[in-house]
Structures are given as C-alpha cells and as structure tokens.
Amino acid sequence: AKGAGRDRYALFDPAMYADIMREAEDRAELEGALAGQEFVVHYQPIVDLPTSRLIGVEALVRWQHPERGLIGPNTFIPLAESTGLIVPLGRWVLRQACEQLAAWCAEFPLARGIRVNVNLSARQFQHEGLVEEIAGILAGTGVNPHQIVLEITESLLMQDTDSTIDTLGRLKALGVRLAIDDFGTGYSSLSYLKRFPVDILKIDRSFVDGIDTVDGDATLAEAVVQLGRALQLQTVAEGIETAEQWSTLQDLGCEFGQGYLFARPGAAAEIATILTGTAAD
Ligand code: C2E
Ligand code: CA
Ligand code: CA
Ligand code: CA
Fold first, then answer.
1. ipTM greater than 0.90, yes or no?
2. Where is the EAL domain (predicted)?
3. Contact 90 CB / ligand 1 (< 6 Å)
C-alpha cells in the first residue's frame, strides 16, 4: 500500500506536471506558428575566400514571434526535433528556399551561378517520404537541383546503415549536392567519408574561432582542408569573424567561407542587393 501511495504521488509530482504542461504548450505554440506562417528564412552569404565574391547562401530559419520578436533557431529547433515538427518545418524551409532561388534566378543572371544550402536534421532524414518530398519541391519550383546543397551532420553519417547509404544515394540521384555540416565535431571515423557520396565539408566554427590563438586549431583546420583535397571535396569554413582568420584560412588552402566578417544572415532582399551585380564588384 505504501508503494502504491508513493507511485500515486509520483504521478502527480507538480514539478513534472509543470514540465509536461510547458512542453505541451510550447509544442502547440510551435505548431500554431507554422500554421500561422510566423517563420521566416534568412540567408547568409557564402563567399569565395580569395575574392570574397558571393558563391552561395545558407538558408537559416527564424521565428518572427508576434510578441517576442525575432527568435533564433537554437531556441526552437531542439523542440521541433523532439516533437517531430521539424519534418513539416524543414520541408517548409526547403520549399521557401527553392522558391526564393527560382525568383532570384528569374530576376538576376548572377543568381544562376549560386547555390543555396539548406539544413537537414537527422529526424527529417529518417522520415520515410523525404526523398520523394524533396523531388516534388525541386520539380514544383523548377530550380536546378545542382544549385541546392543539403547540409547534414556527422552524427547522421555515424549511423552508417544500409538505409543511410541508400537515402544519400537517392538524394544524390536527384542532382543535389551534399555537405557535412560542423565537420570535425563528431566522433567520426574518417572511413565513412569515402563510402558516402558527399561533396562538401564545412569546417566547424569552433576550429575557426581559435585558428590564430589556440594551439592546434590551425593544424586541425588544415587537416580538414587537406582531407577535403585528398577526397576532392570542397571546403567551406564557418564563422569567420576577423581578417586574420580569413587570411589564415586562405593560407591553409580553404576555398570558401562564411561568417560575420563578410555578412550576417539577412532577409532575402539583402541578398538581392548583392545579386544586382553592383555590390559584388
Ligand atoms: P549551423 O547550421 O551551423 O548554422 C550556422 C550558424 O552560425 C548560424 O546560426 C549562423 O548565424 C551562425 N554564424 C554564421 N557566421 C557566424 C560568425 O561569424 N560568428 C558567429 N558567432 N556565428 C555565426 P543560427 O542561424 O542561429 O542557426 C543555428 C543552428 O540552427 C544552425 O547551425 C542549424 O543547426 C540550426 N538551423 C537553422 N536553420 C535550420 C533549418 O532550417 N533546419 C534545421 N534542421 N536546422 C536549422
Ligand atoms: Ca548549417
Ligand atoms: Ca554549421
Ligand atoms: Ca555550427
């Protein structure tokens, strides 16, 4: 009887109850935001390091909250992941980015030479209809699939199952390119790089941060660049904030980069300014 009493008490633990209620409310709010079109996609330029010319953009989602203002993805992506809402949200971001690319291409000849990177979470990757949905979005918006880069994380590749390899192969068959995001932060065995059909390595911001100050960080970044060269993959450095980092990365042979030094993520209209051609020169 004593045990049952304790169990019953645990069932009504007020702190736990509050947590559950809060999570349910947050989830409902997120669902409402998706239905009410409160999300917006911002775009951060990716540049050719020697010339700092625009070669592409990364699509990054934000929540334009009616009371709290613009909210960054780190506050809501984890909940979207855990509730599975990342599947419709991620699909929406991809469609938005493809529509935007099609509009830029129609208006600016320069846009036909750029790529648009879109983040794909592990949860989306496991979703059954992913490849068909992406195929539908590409066909529906009419974008050149070669201009789309899907960014996936190392942890996803770590699962190294037949179905991972199968999905990656089917994505590649659509004509899109694949990038490994945050490269170097996972517990990776390098052997998977040879087996998976990836095209681009993105050097994580944590290595770029200390490239001129922390012993070993430049060595690590250089190792990634060398690895990319050996496997004929492009390398993109993330989070470049200073001219020193920019110059060091060029010395190491890194081709492309993105970071606040070049531009912060911004609304589509800011990218259009660059694509008119006047600002690029
Ligand atoms: P990420 O994919 O690694 O994206 C790069 C993040 O670094 C972005 O943060 C960007 O604003 C930030 N960043 C770029 N340059 C600099 C710099 O020079 N200094 C600093 N300190 N930060 C820089 P953001 O937009 O807050 O996004 C955070 C994360 O949220 C992303 O990291 C990505 O993992 C996730 N995310 C964003 N949009 C999406 C999406 O549509 N789908 C999915 N699944 N995840 C997304
Ligand atoms: Ca990314
Ligand atoms: Ca990243
Ligand atoms: Ca990162």
1. yes
2. 23-279
3. yes
